Structures are given as C-alpha cells and as structure tokens.
Amino acid sequence: MGISIADLCVTYGGSTRVIDGLTLDIAPGSFFTLLGPSGCGKTTLLRTIAGFIPIASGSMSFSGKDVTKLAAHERNIGMVFQDYALFPNRTVFENVAYGLRARKMDGASIKRKVSQALERVGLEPFAGRLPAALSGGQRQRVALARAMVIQPQVLLMDEPLSNLDAKLRVQVRETIAELQREAGITTVFVTHDQEEALALSDQIAVMNKGRIEQLGTPRHIYREPATAYVADFIGAANLIPVHSPSVGAGTVEVSLDQHAIQAQAPAAIRGSAILVARPEDIGLDRAGAAGLPGRIRSQQYLGVKTTYRVEFGGGRAVNVDVHGDRRAEFDVGMDVSLAFDPVKTRVLAS
Ligand SMILES: Nc1ncnc2c1ncn2[C@@H]1O[C@H](COP(=O)(O)OP(=O)(O)OP(=O)(O)O)[C@@H](O)[C@H]1O
Ligand SMILES: [Mg+2]
C-alpha cells in the first residue's frame, strides 16, 4: 500500500511547525527510512502517519484513499517502538495475541497465527515467558511479531534497534529485512543511525527541521548528497570551506591552498562553497607526488582500514582512509601528498 502525504503541517498546538509543509510519496511495498538528527521531527511524522497526532493542515492518503480524518485504530497499522512497549504482566504469547483478541478472532486461529509469528522471529520456545525474562533483542522480536501478526497494511518502526548492542542490532536488523521482504509490507523506519538506513532502505528521506532535505536511494544519498547538511549527516565526509568566484554546474576547479582541485558541482554556485570529499575518495601518497602537500597528524587503526588525519595549509585537516598493506608506507609526522578524486569530490553551496 502506498502512502501519499501532501503539504503536511504539524504544530502540537503551538506556533512552531514541527512538520513544516512536508510532501512525500512512499511506494507500495517499499522500505522507507526517515533519517535525521534528534528533534528534526522523525517521530512526529511517524506518529502522524499512524494517526496519533492531529495535523494542522495538509492531507494523507493510503493507496489513494484519504485517511486524514481516520483515527489510529481505523488505519490498520503495525507499530514497533524503541522501548519495545510490551505488556509486562502478559506472556510473550499474550503480547503477540493482543491485536488478534482485540479483533475478536477465534481461539484456534489466534493460537495458529501467534505460533507462526513467534516461529518466524525464532521465539516459539519462549511463548510462556514474561517479557522481563527476555533479552533486549528477544523483546524487540516479540514486538515485531506483535506488529506483524495483525497483517497490517503499513509497518511503522521508531528506532527499534537503538536499545540493542552492536552485534544484536545487526541480527535484529536482518530479521526485520527478511520479514519485510517476505510480507512485502510498506514500511516506514525511523533511525538516526546512517549505517542502518543505508543497509535496510529502498529510499531514504534525510530530514532537517520538519522538512525533507533530500530523498533518494541509499547509493544516491551517499554518493550524490545535494547539500552539505546531507553530506555531513551520511557517512564520514570532509567538508572544507572554499572560496569560489562562482562556478557553473559540472566539472569545476576550485583552489585549495593555492592548489587547483577538480570536482563536480551538481548546481551552479555563487560565492562561498564547500568542498565535500569522503575519506575513501582522497588518495594518499608520499610527499613529492602530484597533489596537495600535507602532513599526517594522527592515525586510527580500524582493522579493515586506517584513517589518517592529514593537516594541510592554514591548520586545516582531512581524514583519509587507506586499506590493506599500503598502510605500511605511512606514519604519524610524515609529509604526504593528497589527491582528491575529481569525479567523486563535490562542490556544494555553503
Ligand atoms: N508532545 C509534544 N509537544 C510539543 N512539542 C513536541 C512534542 N513532541 C515533540 N515535540 C517537539 O517536536 C520536535 C520534533 O520532535 P520529534 O520527537 O519528532 O523528533 P525526532 O526527530 O524523533 O528526535 P529524536 O531523534 O530525538 O527521537 C522537537 O523539537 C520536540 O521538542
Ligand atoms: Mg524520535
């Protein structure tokens, strides 16, 4: 089921527009992620889709049907929250059965559906336990089973992985991805974890102050950030202010430390600009090679790669990633040369 949102404003009754004229189309069956920093309005938008928060203006439709005035329980939505929100004094079975009992389903069908749902998340043996006797990852799987068992038209998830440790996050993340693909259910997922967003999503909307700053596939958002805000939020980007005497769109040349750097400008820029280069898109060579001269100030060994902090003119610095055996060539204090990838380096308006 597709979701269309047009010109949505949400105010919580005050004068501040927490959601500020937001328009969005979510394709049926897609995994759609809302990504952005704390306070940008992710939870508000999700709860508005669920029907928990009244809107100030705008409209919303599911599969072309206007739901703007429908109450939450009329929207057939499954929700998973950051804090699990399980009933503490009901068993795992009864937690999952809750939505089916509310729909007055017969006992035998409930038993069958709950067992299937629990089996699907690998928790059938735990059906008789109380939530307190489960780990965080298991609790979130119960919450997932509870949301899915009612066969909702839309699945909404608000930072469902953020209370789990790193390894569990990846495991439950895979469960979520499998369930979503199998059920083909339209899913809106909220996170401020960019890796999670990149790994799971068909589409990502990067939000900024109640608006969508950029919308696209993970690859598109990562490789072609439209603004410095998006570049900074997704992945580790070096953002270097540069003075450009106005450049047109396309391949451009900007000056960094009296050194010409070639880069791509997605749009024309007048005045000050920002050079955006990811650590993996800057080449590192021994001093003397063509490129921008610098000196390694520090390094972080990260297993698969080492990130070098390289200082250049005027006390500025960039992070550069080097993989594999080439790392043996470099050390802190060494003079080096930086080569910016002319295709992947971008120049954006600041
Ligand atoms: N019930 C409320 N009444 C008034 N203002 C609220 C209410 N809930 C949230 N806000 C405000 O709305 C803005 C957006 O909040 P929201 O919870 O949607 O952010 P978020 O993007 O989910 O942040 P986080 O990543 O911290 O969860 C914030 O400025 C917040 O203070
Ligand atoms: Mg939130």
Summarize the structure.
The chain is an alpha+beta fold and 350 residues long.
Give a structural overview:
The protein has 350 residues and is of the alpha+beta class. The chain has two domains: 3-223, 3-Layer(aba) Sandwich (Rossmann fold); 237-349, Nucleic acid-binding proteins (OB fold (Dihydrolipoamide Acetyltransferase, E2P), Beta Barrel). It is built from eight helices and 20 strands. Strand 7, helix 5 (166-183) and strand 8 form a beta-alpha-beta unit. Helix 3 crosses helix 4. The radius of gyration is 24 Å and the shape is globular. The two termini are 38 Å apart. It binds adenosine-5'-triphosphate and magnesium ion. Residues 12, 18, 36, 38-44, 192 line the site of adenosine-5'-triphosphate.
Number of strands: 20
In this structure, how is the largest beta sheet organized?
6 strands, mixed
The CATH superfamily of the largest domain bears the name P-loop containing nucleotide triphosphate hydrolases
CATH architecture verdict of the largest domain:
3-Layer(aba) Sandwich
Q: Tell me the name of the CATH class of the largest domain.
A: Alpha Beta
N-to-C order of helices and strands:
EEEHEEEHHHEHEHEEHHEEEEEEEEEE
- Ions, cofactors, ligands: which are bound? adenosine-5'-triphosphate, magnesium ion
